[in-house]
Here is the input.
Amino acid sequence: MLLTCLLSIVNFFITAPPILKDTATPNVVLIFMDDMGYGDPEVYGGIPYHTPNINKLAASGMRFTNFYAAQAVCSASRAALLTGCYPNRVGISGALMPWSTVALSPKEETIASIVKTKGYATGMIGKWHLGAKAPYLPTSYGFDEYLGLPYSNDMWPVGFDGIPITDTANKKSKYPPLQLLDGFNPVMPIHNLEDQSKLTTIYTERAVKFINKNKNKPFFLYLAHSMPHVPIAVSSKYKNKSGAGLFGDLMMEIDWSIGEVMMALEKNGLTKNTLIIFTSDNGPWLTYGNHAGSTGGLREGKGSAWDGGVKVPCIMSYPGVIAPGSICNNLAATMDVLPTIAALTKTKLPDHKIDGIDIISLLTGQPNANPRDHFVYYYDNNSLKAVRQGVWKLVFAHQSQTYKATDMGKDGFPGKYASMAVPMALYDLSTDPGETLDVAKHNPAVLAALNAIADIYRTELGDDLTNKPGTQKRPAATIQ
Here is the structure.
């Protein structure tokens, strides 16, 4: 009897889910990759290069297998991450150009602005892409400091061969010079691929400096790498080191960067009180061929509403709260990061409506937890192209970019784009993650349930495919 009791006690401590810590001021490091596909990190099947530090991060925490970016494009995805809202709710769509006349509204609250109310130091490093010039840069949205590029690293007057463009007939010549900014101030021009090769190291060194500087206070660090978005470039530390081409070299350098951040936390004794989130803004830009990553077998990629475009790798580590080596198969999304951080830091949520959901119950392994019931796939300006609930994904008839009908590019040059007419179809993602087998006629009740969810969003956020305007959208800022 005594032995049975002892075994029961031991089993409880082995299997009981972790609980939240008493502290209300955990540090948060949010690492956001650009165009990293679901299949790129080694722990998601990435080959033949190795990512030991990302592997270590996964071993220390939770790897998500059904984690989604809000949309498969840069600015929209970043707006969703920082505000906890579908991007069309806050008036952001597509990828903003350097000359765009819209930006994220400063009236929107961000992760940085809400944790600042709790005394957090806040820093952003890397790609912003929610407003190209002052005052629509990170320090106007809750960040104490900023170092990075205002938009994508391919928005520059340089050809795909890395040579500056002198022919004014070339549309890329219209881009302004690309500048690394510190706050609002240009500090380094990005003239060529050699300059691009310095970015990962510059960002990493600034991240380590931020951690060292703020080790005695709670902090939020948003590290938004510019790569593996093209053009890709690596420093001499990793060039020709992977044996897997330039993309493999880049994955090794990105992994080094993650390791440097983890080491800085460890050296400062901060690992046990820090939540690290590692994820991506969307899937790979497959038209760039060997300079693009992998969807891990998912359909299509960036620029679509297929899962190859929006299902992304995500790893979260928080020792003592998230069980090491755990895997979460539940649905979750980048919009959920803001409310989850708010709950962990005991911070008040924004007063206006958001779409994110607190997923602490998933992080702590609570039995039967399923905080996110569904996810909707918007793309283009405001087209509701699909909806997912559980294992089911209903795709509505629409026009879609496709990589299937064109040749891929190579060595930094893109292939040609193509589009296709997509019919309505229902997919069971548990057996068909590649979205190839339409099972609509066998599941009328599922169709009805998913259509009902879609109608709610068409009313709130609108839908260009059905000519619904939406009643609960907020405007973006207008740049004068």
Observations:
- The chain has two domains: 23-372, 375-478.
- The longest strand covers residues 27-33.
